[in-house]
Amino acid sequence: MSVGSIFRLFIIVSVLVIAAAVVSTTILALVRFGSSMLLSDQWTDFDYTRRLAEGSLRFADLFDQHNEHRIFFPRLIFFLDYLVANNTNTVDLTFNVLIAAGTLFSILALYRKLEKDRGIYLGFAAIGTAILFSLSQRENFLWGFQVQFFGAVAAAAGAFLAFAVSIERARRGVAAMGPRCLAYVLVLVDTYTLSNGILAAFLLIPMALALRAGRAIVLATLGWALLLAVSYFLNFHPVQGHSPYLYSLTHPLDYLGYLSGYLGNLVTCLGIAEPLRSRAAILLGAIGLLLTLAALARSLRTWDEPPARVALLALMLFVLGTAMLTALGRITFGMEQAFSGRYVTPVSVFWVAHICYWAPLRRLRDGLGLGLALAGAVVVAGLTLCAVKGHLRGWQEGNAQALTTAKARDAILSDVRDVSTYQSVFPVAEVIVQHVPFMRNHHLSVFADPDNRLLGQKPDWLAVTLANRCIGAFDLTALLSSSGGELSLAATGWAWDQARGKAVARLLFTDAAGMVVGYAGGGWPRPDVRLAIPAVRSGAVGWTGFLKAAPATLVRAYALLPGHRACVVGEKITPSDDSHLVPLSSLGAAISVSSAPALSGGWSQDGQNAAAGSLSLDEVVYGSWSGTDGNVGEMRVGPFTATHSRIAFPMVTGPHAENQVAVLLDAETGIELRRYPLFTSLTWTGLEIQLPEAAVGKAVVLEFRDQGTGWGEWSAVGGLHEVVSDNPTP
User: pTM higher than 0.70, yes or no?
Assistant: First the structure.
């Protein structure tokens, strides 16, 4: 065997190993980082699953727009996930992999028809596999809702393959109706998977013309495409907030830059800093544009291309058309929008189609051919590097996403309404609040696991704990809110399972009576623990969670181990109740404040909801409602000097005060001294708060914060008052 043959074999084996490693670790990432939690748009689209469960869903509802898309077929997959897997994303994530595999199959089937060298075919097939399965597409692979992004390019690739096969069969005199009908069905699926899917139907028309399919087939294809377009745009309504199309017409260079950046977004996976990142992406995208135009010119010049090559060209044009439509609607959002991870999937298909189109055309017999082959090899090597580097970054980002999602899961399981945590999975916390009771009652999503439905119960198996099995700590408890004599708390710590030599993945909290009052998840970075305790062999032993408990009660944290076994990690006494409601008549003299309150966000004078009425005391009132429950913001009162250990103020809230707090700050340093949740009170009353000893006689600021955007989440307060007696007010 010659040196050249050995080198060629080495390259082929290497890329095959890389491809196998990428595919296997992507599947492992879905198992490890995939979550049963609904993410982002899944929360709004869950309305359709809910209607299905309640028996009120109509068939026509499945064609409702989701933004500019009609996601009929993705919704069928979401329903299957509900029927088979209780909305745990198991089916959705599985389809992500299967659909990506379908795209790969279609492209490689076309490539196999063009490539005569089996070794070269295996090498480029492996590179294409690595690119299409790279976790640079983490946003799509790990989000069940993204079956549509995989589905749009998969259906297009399958349709072009089926149409090419129908032409080949017709030329051989074999029945071609089956694959041609399959192509028509696939463009129907594409149209009702994502809005750009309609492009696939219209690209079949030039395919039919270029391949001389015959007048009848051209007219039938044209008629089918027009029928799909009419059905799609029937009762269609434009989406507000997108870029005006006139902007792209009047800014052609900006449009071309966005378009090129979109087609070159694989470069962003390298982690290059700006402005080099944008320049590199635009350069790669410009190369892709030129190669696409060259392929198009080649086909128009010869009009005698093999059906497989025309199909690959159609797939490139499909992604190019997708990029053009995206640029029209989102150019004013900035170049960062073009770099979104969701767009890496179609761009990956674009470049793999280019590789499979041009590789069989290599010409190594002259200097020009060798130069072009070398340039092509550099591009392919760069794309492979992007895929591998993006895969490694995607794994890290997937781990971080899993931790954030798990934190939101535990807040929901613990029935703790922490807005900032909820917003990590959907920006409008109220939507989550609306759906959670239904999910809990029907054991869906995060509630599908029986161990996630223990809140308020006293499991028998918790009474038998394993001594010395775990080491850990219950480090911190932060007060989030208080309502009905119950505190909502965030907790952190660390835990290590000594027997298995692993960090603890799940924990739960119990109160003094042994009732489950909250959940926590492990895997958070705590490198300090590993440095301090040699027995701990991981830096990811931290945990964070949520619980609800009465004031000044003992809470115990348990590490959950396989087989319904547990061990105690630590225990904590919840904060005492340092605030309580008092009658307005008990408020003492007004506390002098040198300046008017500093207002931000929704806070304004007389900003309470009219339902609360006016304050009977003769003083200025400030509220955060100011016209809508969704207002948030802060009001700073002070600095002032408190001469007694307690102060009071009149207050009123909306029906939900979970995210209304008063925070006492040191006026000089700004350090938080204590946090007081506002109790729910629909009528004006007084709230008396206990000041920490360090605050008495010193300059402090009282900051009122409205952190709730949901219905009934607002508060209003009057002036500050002294409480003469140091004894608690009865």
Answer: yes
